[in-house]
Amino acid sequence: MYFEDMPVISAEEIGEGLRFAARQVLRNLPEFTQQFQKAYSEGGFYRPTPNRDWTTGFWTGEIWLAYEYCGDERLRRAGDIQIDSFLERIDQKIEVDHHDMGFLYSPSCVAGYKLTGNPKGREAAVKAADQLISRYHPVGEFIQAWGPMNAPENYRLIIDCLLNLPLLYWASEETGDEKYREIAEKHIHTAVKNVIREDFSTWHTFFFDMETGAPDHGATCQGYRDGSAWARGQAWGIYGCALAYKYTGRKEYISVFKGVTDYFLAHLPKDMVPFWDLEFTDGDDQPRDSSSASIAACGMLEMVKYMEKEDAGIYRKYAMQIMKSVYDRYAVKDFAVSNGLVLHSTYSNRSPYNTCNHCGVDECNIWGDYFYMEALTRLQKDWILYW
Ligand code: GLY
What is the dihedral of CA 312, 246, 368, 370, to 10 degrees? Predict the structure, then answer.
């Protein structure tokens, strides 16, 4: 057991965290209904952005979580306006040539459809699922993450994609067409087999041979170095394994979940909120990624539903300890400090190995805010997943 002495978040703190979050979302609606919050804040404040990036669904997801919390009709109206924007985006194929259809359409359109029955949410999400399966490679059995299809330098999957797959399970249930589920299952299997290393740390991305489909090599884009464990990749792995089990029922994913989660826990600093890469810990002059803490907590809170009582108690406690730390030390509590919800998150930090842009370092990140609200909502009630 790790962190025996860390306190767990209380019911009052969960309630207060959600109350503040819903107020913050409501305060933001005038500026962020026709537009979206950007992927990251600057000096603690998000600027508006059109619906183009892979991240805009998280803002709409916050609106729906706030609506679930307080039922304010202004939130529902804003959520519906944003669903219109997502439908237009998929119809016009605006920046959808990548795998992040689940991140975009699950917390926005699937959520809105589940909560209010908005038929445009259903239509947009089914179209997004079609777009997602168009990136499937039978040779290698995976969904290609980025870039033009069939280029060797892009012939890879990334661990984050595990969160894009629930859209496919939802689409199969909704349409009765098994093709979405079949592709999701193939991808999950390929991903779990290849991105998780023997010690249960994770690769961010993994390449396959274009001719034979054979696994080739792992590489990072957003981590410190290829062999390290990028904190958010590990957190996507935790939540991804929980969802993989939920949707496939394959028992082996429970032990993979435990391995990946225990690796994450064993590499956390004292306050249980990781640095941006698990290579770093207390004493290192590196930024945190608070978003990884909330993502991991959501994954644990999902998985405990399917575990034996003793294990369920253990991982639920970890999730509640992590959220106590996020709430106490990282959550915004003053509107003057930020228009976001959680500080000290890192999108992409500069390092000799990181091939992605340097941005959103030690700021709010929009998915960090979303998963903070999701974790608190999960702790407050029996939550019906958007994923
Ligand atoms: N899915 C991209 C990221 O986690 O930054």
Answer: -110
How far does the centroid of ligand 1 lie from the alpha carbon of residue 159, in Å? 9
Q: Where are the beta strands (DSSP E) in 320-385?
A: 345-348, 359-363
In CATH, the architecture of 11-380 is: Alpha/alpha barrel (1.50)
Q: Give residue-wise pLDDT tens across range 195-234.
A: 999 999 999 999 999 999 999 999 999 999 999 999 999 9
Compute the distance between CA of residue 309 and CA of residue 66 in angstroms, rounded to an integer. Answer: 31
Does the pTM of the predicted model rise above 0.85? yes
**Residue range 249-275, pLDDT digits in tens:** 999 999 999 999 999 999 999 999 999
Decide if pLDDT at 1 tops 80.
no
Residue 127 to residue 173: CA distance in whole angstroms = 14
Whether ligand 1 lies within 6 angstroms of the CB of 160 is answered as yes
With beta carbons less than 8 A apart as the criterion, state whether 140 and 209 touch. Answer: yes
Of the candidates 376, 375, 343, 372, the residue with the CA atom closest to the CA atom of residue 360 = 343
Distance 11 CA to ligand 1 centre (A): 30
Classify residue 344 as left (phi > 0), alpha (psi -120 to 50) or beta.
left
Spatial distance between the Cα atoms of 149 and 134, rounded to a whole number of angstroms? 10
The token duo for 97 is 């040539």
| SS3 (DSSP) at 294 | helix
* 100 has catalytic annotation: yes
pLDDT digits (tens, 9 = 90+) for 338-363: 999 999 999 999 888 777 888 999 99
Nearest CA to ligand 1 atom 5: 347
Alpha-carbon distances, residue 277 vs 125, 205, 238, 280, 294 (angstroms): 33, 15, 15, 6, 15
The residue behind tokens 């406690």 is 317
Q: Which of 84, 91, 130, 160 is catalytic?
A: 160
The DSSP secondary structure of 173-221, one letter per residue, reads HHH--THHHHHHHHHHHHHHHHHB-TTS-B-SEEEE-TTT--EEEEE-S
